[in-house]
From TrEMBL:
Keywords: Disulfide bond, Hydrolase. It comes from the Eukaryota. GO terms for molecular function: carboxylic ester hydrolase activity. The keyword Nucleotide-binding does not apply. This is Alpha/beta-hydrolase. Gene3D superfamilies: alpha/beta hydrolase.
Length: 215
């Protein structure tokens, strides 16, 4: 059913039950006044490392379809997009377009078109939150965290970054120093993913506060 606020969640390379994003959604929804209805759904996609580029593309296509269909069916709803890890790339590509060669993984992602914030669907998207985005670009004004000054494994192209920047100030991208995916050059041991999996502990409260400020 249509609700006042609806979140779309894109998990990282983990099962749905192991993702912390539903915890974030529940934290947000339970903190709202009782007369405000709030719900969430997962963007259904493989979230796989085996065929990374195809996995991301499937997520972008599924996300675009479900977000667009929901927005048209529920024109009064306010929409929030949240993604972690590969899911952060999916969410970023949904709004900013994606595609290109991922050299470090040896694959090529097909191109996709983003969502203009001035479009009918775009006007319903009130907040975008990214955690550990592999397409992180250093020093963007919406970057938050100790990894803000580093690039991800495969930073966005200039065209995609330009469209992502058009979503300012409705976007926030969290990146920790030592996260080998969003802050690739910030650590020597790229196999240590501790800083990639502690966003719930470090930033969930801040993210919920940001989303509420945008609604």
């Amino acid at each position: 059913p249509c609700t006042d606020i609806h979140l779309f969640l894109a998990r990282g390379v983990a099962s749905y039950s192991n993702s912390f994003l539903p915890t974030l959604s529940n934290s947000l929804c339970t903190s709202l006044p009782q007369n405000i209805t709030c719900s969430y759904q997962d963007i259904v996609y493989p979230a796989s490392l085996d065929d990374y580029c195809d996995s991301v593309l499937q997520g972008v296509m599924a996300g675009n379809q479900t977000v667009t269909e929901y927005a048209k069916r529920c024109p009064e709803s306010q929409i929030v997009l949240v993604g972690h890890s590969q899911g952060a790339q999916v969410v970023g590509d949904i709004v900013a377009g994606g595609g290109g060669v991922v050299e470090k993984l040896g694959c090529k992602q097909a191109g996709s078109v983003g969502i203009n914030p001035g479009s009918e669907v775009g006007k319903q998207i009130k907040a975008i939150v990214l955690f550990g985005d592999p397409r992180h670009v250093n020093s963007a004004p919406y970057n938050i965290g100790s990894g803000s000054d580093f690039n991800g494994l495969f930073p966005r192209t200039s065209n995609s970054l330009s469209l992502l920047n058009s979503w300012i100030p409705h976007i926030r991208s969290y990146c920790n120093f030592g996260d080998p995916y969003c802050a690739f050059a910030s650590q020597i041991d790229a196999t240590d993913s501790t800083q990639h999996h502690n966003y719930e502990d470090k930033w969930m409260t801040d993210a919920v506060k940001f989303i509420k400020s945008e609604l």
